[in-house]
Each structure stands twice: as structure tokens, then as C-alpha cells.
Design the sequence.
């Protein structure tokens, strides 16, 4: 099981890095790239929506790129300052990305089902990350570690969305219906896995001195 767990971790990291840099392609292409053509001229010509859309993608990409490193016990043990520095960047990225995700979620393709799923995960991502930060500020290391597992599980929805959306579209042959499913399947199973992981954590995985 140890080997399987390591393999899954490596695969997850590779996917996180790949999807983390994916938003750059939106900057390098015009409005015909990715999901933008489905948003219509009304949204793509809306300055606030465009700002929130690109901000969400870029800051979410940063969170994906660096978030996984926070679960390295070696990093936390050898360089707590580095862990904290990365954590601050992750926190700032998530706060910005989740808030903009909530806004653009109200304009999600697919109607109320998709909108509800997208807005809800934005709220969960915001809450779990902020709560994780407040817990460590209050000295609750165990609670912090558990909450940040939920936070990155929500963050990893950016990866799983790109798995469930094309798969659902292939099976159903209808993009809107596929988006309805992907809007929920991209994060509900993630949080389920996070819950199983959290249940097994009884004590902090590493001690973090407060005087460094």
C-alpha cells in the first residue's frame, strides 16, 4: 500500500503542476480558447467578469502549483520558514481565487445545477482555507493540518473537473448535461477522500516550533 500511495501522490503532483500552468494558455490565446466561446459575447465583453475569470484561473493555478508541497513532512521538518512562506502565498492565492470563483460561478454554463455546484465549492474552498489558517494562528496544529487537507481537496477540483467534464460529455453526448455532472463530481469525491484521510490522523504528523 505504501508504494501505491506514493505512485498516486506522484501522479497527483504531476497533474497539479500541469493544470497549474494551464491557465497561462488563456493569456496566450484569444477569446475562442477553452470554455470562453460558450460564454457568449455578453460575458466575454463584461470587464468585471473577465477580470474575475482570469484572476481566478491564475491565482487558482498558483494554489495548485504550490499547495501540494505543504504536505511534505520533510519540508516542514527541515525548513519551517519555507513551509510558512509557501503557506502565505497559498492562502493569498486561495482567498482571491475562491472569491472570484464564487462570482463567476453565478454565470456558469448549465443553469442552476452547475451554478449551485460551482458557487458551493468556491465557498467551501474559501472557508476551509481561512479556517485552516485561523487554527494554526490559534496554535491548533492538528486542526490546521486536517482543514488544509480539505482545502487542497477543494483546490484539486481544478484537476478533477478536467477529467469529469470530457468524460461526462463523451458518455452523455451533451455538454450542458456533462457540465451539470462535472460541477459536482469534480469536488464531492475529493472531499470524500479527504474525509477518509482526515479520519486516520490522530496526532500532528510533524511538530512545528512556534519560535522560528
Sequence:
Amino acid at each position: 500500500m505504501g508504494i501505491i500511495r506514493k505512485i498516486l501522490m506522484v501522479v497527483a503532483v504531476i497533474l497539479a503542476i500541469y493544470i497549474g500552468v494551464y491557465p497561462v494558455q488563456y493569456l496566450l490565446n484569444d477569446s475562442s480558447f477553452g470554455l470562453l466561446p460558450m460564454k457568449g459575447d455578453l460575458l466575454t465583453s463584461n470587464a468585471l467578469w473577465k477580470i474575475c475569470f482570469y484572476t481566478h484561473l491564475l491565482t487558482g493555478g498558483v494554489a495548485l502549483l504550490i499547495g501540494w508541497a505543504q504536505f511534505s513532512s520533510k519540508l516542514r521538518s527541515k525548513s519551517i520558514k519555507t513551509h510558512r512562506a509557501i503557506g502565505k502565498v497559498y492562502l493569498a492565492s486561495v482567498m482571491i481565487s475562491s472569491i472570484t470563483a464564487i462570482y463567476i460561478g453565478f454565470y456558469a454554463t448549465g443553469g442552476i445545477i452547475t451554478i449551485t455546484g460551482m458557487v458551493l465549492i468556491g465557498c467551501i474552498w474559501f472557508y476551509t482555507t481561512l479556517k485552516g489558517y485561523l487554527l494554526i494562528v490559534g496554535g491548533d496544529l492538528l486542526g490546521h493540518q486536517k482543514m488544509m487537507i480539505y482545502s487542497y481537496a477543494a483546490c484539486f477540483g481544478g484537476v478533477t473537473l478536467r477529467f469529469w467534464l470530457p468524460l461526462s460529455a463523451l458518455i452523455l453526448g451533451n455538454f450542458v448535461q456533462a457540465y451539470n455532472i462535472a460541477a459536482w463530481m469534480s469536488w464531492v469525491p475529493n472531499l470524500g477522500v479527504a474525509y477518509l484521510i482526515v479520519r486516520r490522523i490522530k496526532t500532528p504528523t510533524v511538530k512545528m516550533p512556534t519560535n522560528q
The mean pLDDT is 86. The CA atoms of residues 8 and 14 lie 10 Å apart.
